[in-house]
Amino acid sequence: MKTSFPRQDIRVLLLEGVSRSAVETFQRAGYSQIELHAKSLPEDELKARIAEAHIVGIRSRSHLTAEVLEHARRLIAVGCFCIGTNQVDLEAARRLGVPVFNAPYSNTRSVAELVIAEAIMLLRGIPQKNALCHRGGWTKSAAGSYEARGKTLGVVGYGHIGTQVGVLAESLGMHVIFHDVESKLALGNARAAASLQDLLERADVVTLHVPETPATKLMIGAAELAAMRPGALLINASRGTVVDIGALADALRRGHLAGAAVDVFPVEPKGNDDPFVSPLVGMDNVILTPHIGGSTLEAQDNIGIEVASKLLRYSDNGSTLSAVNFPEVSLPEHPRSRRLLHIHRNVPGVLSRINELFSAGNINIDAQFLQTDTEVGYVVIDVAADEAQAAALKDKLAAIPGTLRTRVLY
Ligand SMILES: NC(=O)c1ccc[n+]([C@@H]2O[C@H](COP(=O)([O-])OP(=O)(O)OC[C@H]3O[C@@H](n4cnc5c(N)ncnc54)[C@H](O)[C@@H]3O)[C@@H](O)[C@H]2O)c1
Ligand SMILES: O=C(O)CC[C@@H](O)C(=O)O
């Protein structure tokens, strides 16, 4: 059967060491043109490779800006093999008719476990004791060393990760308070703080779990750090832009904060061979990790399967359920029909032009699915048509003004 892109012709470009479970998921579905890179690509190379790709998979280091996406003439969909999607210009992708998928939960537990481990380590002063032992020193002392039990954990951003951290912290006997811009169901005995300021003033350990947005950029700066309790601890496993790293280094140097654990940085090395530079380097009371909050084998394996499956569902069936930037449709299979996809700018008249086209050709529509948002309309049409008719219909659909992408799926 003739489709716009037979599976064996669909080129999948996977960057940044996306798990092999993704490759295997594509292969099991009959996709054979899969290119896997261990690193992100320099911008020029990314533009060149994305121009050839139908499906692109990235993690947090590849920046799919509007300019990069302009080169993606054949692109069907983008997969972020992680939670964060801030590295993709989602609006630009949507305007080009390209849905973006991610894995909203697959590494949640991994991040939460690391945060709890770090909270305990910081409360006990382990980073500095460990560093001193490595230099041949010895400080057997209880000074500055505390149990987690009875301490207050302040969770900023009470979403998937923040709530998991809260539940685990309560099992250690910690009191949990949280701050979120949305009204949230408090799990266990957790309580909403009156404000961010209130949380900062009350928490012994503050942990950040907000996404990167204009509102969260530098949300923890000198004033917020000053509002924290003397001797408090800060954990950031969200995004590097959320904390003013210079102000954090200063608060640590002055001893206002007793320690910190930082997994994400305003500027991160592109690959494992590139140098890491930060004002926090060399501070014994700071746990530094190379953006590995979600990097466990379990999480990466699950993410590979989850995101590849979403990309396949869109590529093979047209479903956009859980796309982060696109009208969502969940489609049944209609194997006895031909399925055509039409993505267009959401301007008046496009749908009637589409329907006129089918009635003029005397083609019976078996089913039609439409979902729109303010800018983009997505129509899936199942028709009783033969192969030649479907190909001709696709060409006519492509000629409708406002069309962004069109395909014959099967
Ligand atoms: N370090 C890592 O490896 C790693 C792994 C996974 C996720 N992350 C980061 O963690 C972030 C959070 O992940 P999640 O799955 O919990 O996301 P989520 O969307 O489930 O939760 C985020 C929460 O933050 C809240 N929020 C948004 N803006 C806010 C603001 N200005 N002030 C207060 N609250 C605000 C939201 O309402 C939401 O409840 C991700 O966006 C990603 O950037 C990092
Ligand atoms: O794997 C990555 O590069 C990003 C991990 C994490 O920050 C996420 O957003 O899920």
TrEMBL record:
InterPro entries: ACT-like_dom_sf, ACT_dom, AHAS_small-like_ACT, D-iso_2-hydroxyacid_DH_PdxB, D-isomer_2_OHA_DH_cat_dom, D-isomer_DH_CS, D-isomer_DH_CS1, D-isomer_DH_NAD-bd. Its EC number is 1.1.1.399, 1.1.1.95. One of its GO terms (molecular function) is phosphoglycerate dehydrogenase activity. Keywords: NAD, Oxidoreductase. It comes from the Bacteria. Residues 339-410 form the ACT domain. One of its GO terms (biological process) is L-serine biosynthetic process. Pathway: Amino-acid biosynthesis; L-serine biosynthesis; L-serine from 3-phospho-D-glycerate: step 1/3. It catalyses: (2R)-3-phosphoglycerate + NAD(+) = 3-phosphooxypyruvate + NADH + H(+); (R)-2-hydroxyglutarate + NAD(+) = 2-oxoglutarate + NADH + H(+). Belongs to the D-isomer specific 2-hydroxyacid dehydrogenase family. Catalyzes the reversible oxidation of 3-phospho-D-glycerate to 3-phosphonooxypyruvate, the first step of the phosphorylated L-serine biosynthesis pathway. Also catalyzes the reversible oxidation of 2-hydroxyglutarate to 2-oxoglutarate. This is D-3-phosphoglycerate dehydrogenase. It comes from Fulvimonas soli.
